[in-house]
Structures are given as structure tokens and as C-alpha cells.
Write a sequence for this structure.
């Protein structure tokens, strides 16, 4: 019973803070470069996950070889530099932060495509149908804005694909390193790489922070969303498995429009947005139901 309550709390907290990421960061548009904001988020978040990884490595006496380190570095670049960096750019460019959140949540479904390619998993009819539903959901959510915001939609889509590839590569290393170790090492590496790229490009300190409120927003994104958010997400995965933890990405698109209204004072509640959410959630549930069937 206590375990169930902990799972509900972890999934609920993670879904809430993950859904708040897009509208909260939108408040910093024009004041912080999107890649600088991503760097700050993960610099703060890494302070939470790195000690966790070190403890796990010592506890289980794990050995990180050069090849493992390289693989974890690739994961870090995928999640920090590509997925989260592109997502932040998309959020700043988009008219609707909620739309970007909905598109990003398709990552849990597109993982099956990369799993078929990288892990040689079978692309079943159910999985193909799930992918088709999510693509329809993206199209429904974008509607007539596809032409107007084509670049923004593509950025969000690319961000979701990068997250999917990160997840699949993580599965390949799961037999050697638990998820806590993977994110505890990959996040800091990705943060350092992003910081170096920004430093050489001259955009690392492109900030115009106007007061304590902006600092609090950055701290919220770094501590509550990136640090505690990912810890909570992977704690739910430890307690009840990946399928239950993936509920986060089913709840997030439902919460996104309401949090946009609460935080930004504006949200798109058109029928097409609700259709988009419904299609993406249905596609995700197809994947979830297949995983449950395999366990029984």
C-alpha cells in the first residue's frame, strides 16, 4: 500500500513539473538564450543526479570502461544538447507552449521505431498503429499553423525523436548500468559539452536577468523540473517498472493546456487541441497495453 502511494506521488509530481516546463520557461523568452537556459537547467540538475550515480557505482562496485563512458557521453549529448536544447528553442518560437508539450510527449511512442532499428525489436501492427495515431495527433494539434510554424513543429518533433533515441540507447546499457547511473553520468557530460559549445560560439552568457523573479524561475526549472523531476521519474520506474513511469507522458499533454492558462494566462482549448491530445494518448496507451500483455 505504501509502495502504491509512493508510485502515485512520484508519477503525479513528475507529470506536473514536466508539464510546467514549457509554460514556465516561456516566461523567460527574450531574456535568456534557449541553449543557455538548457545549460543552466542541467547544470543545476546534474548537482542532484551525479552524487546519486557515484553512490550507486560504489554500492554495486561497477566499472565504467572507456567504451561505456563514450556510450554515456552520446546519451548525454542526445538528451541535453539535442533533445532539451531543441525543445527549448521550439518553446521560445512557438505561439502555444502547450502544443510543444503535446508534440514532445510522442517520444514514448517513437521509441518503438528506434527499438526496432537499434534493438531489433519487432515492429508489430499495434506499434505501427500507435505511431500512426501519434502522427495524426501532431497534425491535428498543429492544424492550419503547420505552414506558419513549420520550423517550430519540426524542432519539437526532432526533440521528441532525440529523446526516443536516448531511451533506446539507455536500454542497451541497462544490463550493465542501472538508469540512475546512466543519467547521473550522461547528464553532467551533456551539460559540459553544451557549455563548451556555447562558450566557443559566444552565447553562453547571453542573459538579461531582470530580477529575483527570473532567478527563481531558473532555479525552479533546474531544481524542481530537471533535478527532482528526473529523480522522481526514475524512482517511479524502480518501484513499478517503465510502463507505469511512462504514464507521465500520457498525463503531461492533458495538463499542458491548463498549466499554460494558469502560468501564461492564455491557452488553446480548441477542439483540435483536444483531438490531438486524445490521439496521442490513445497511441501511447496502445504501447502500454502491449507491454502489460507481455508481462501477463
Amino acid at each position: 500500500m505504501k509502495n502504491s502511494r509512493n508510485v502515485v506521488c512520484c508519477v503525479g509530481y513528475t507529470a506536473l513539473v514536466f508539464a510546467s516546463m514549457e509554460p514556465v520557461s516561456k516566461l523567460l523568452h527574450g531574456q535568456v538564450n534557449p541553449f543557455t537556459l538548457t545549460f543552466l537547467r542541467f547544470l543545476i540538475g546534474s548537482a542532484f543526479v551525479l552524487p546519486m550515480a557515484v553512490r550507486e557505482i560504489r554500492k554495486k562496485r561497477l566499472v565504467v570502461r572507456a567504451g561505456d563512458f563514450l556510450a554515456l557521453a552520446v546519451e548525454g549529448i542526445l538528451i541535453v544538447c539535442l533533445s532539451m536544447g531543441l525543445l527549448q528553442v521550439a518553446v521560445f518560437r512557438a505561439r502555444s507552449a502547450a502544443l510543444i508539450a503535446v508534440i514532445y510527449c510522442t517520444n514514448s511512442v517513437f521509441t518503438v521505431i528506434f527499438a526496432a532499428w537499434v534493438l531489433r525489436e519487432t515492429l508489430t501492427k499495434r506499434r505501427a498503429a500507435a505511431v500512426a495515431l501519434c502522427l495524426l495527433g501532431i497534425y491535428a494539434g498543429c492544424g492550419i499553423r503547420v505552414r506558419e510554424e513549420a520550423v517550430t513543429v519540426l524542432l519539437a518533433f526532432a526533440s521528441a525523436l532525440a529523446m526516443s533515441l536516448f531511451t533506446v540507447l539507455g536500454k542497451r546499457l541497462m544490463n550493465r548500468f542501472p538508469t540512475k547511473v546512466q543519467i547521473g553520468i550522461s547528464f553532467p557530460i551533456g551539460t559540459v559539452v553544451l557549455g563548451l559549445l556555447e562558450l566557443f560560439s559566444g552565447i553562453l552568457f547571453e542573459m538579461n536577468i531582470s530580477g529575483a523573479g527570473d532567478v527563481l524561475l531558473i532555479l525552479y526549472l533546474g531544481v524542481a523540473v530537471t533535478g527532482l523531476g528526473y529523480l522522481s521519474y526514475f524512482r517511479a520506474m524502480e518501484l513499478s517498472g517503465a510502463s507505469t513511469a511512462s504514464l507521465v507522458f500520457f498525463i503531461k499533454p492533458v495538463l499542458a493546456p491548463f498549466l499554460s492558462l494558469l502560468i501564461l494566462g492564455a491557452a488553446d482549448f480548441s477542439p483540435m487541441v483536444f483531438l490531438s491530445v486524445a490521439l496521442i494518448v490513445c497511441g501511447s496507451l496502445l504501447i502500454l497495453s502491449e507491454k502489460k500483455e507481455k508481462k501477463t
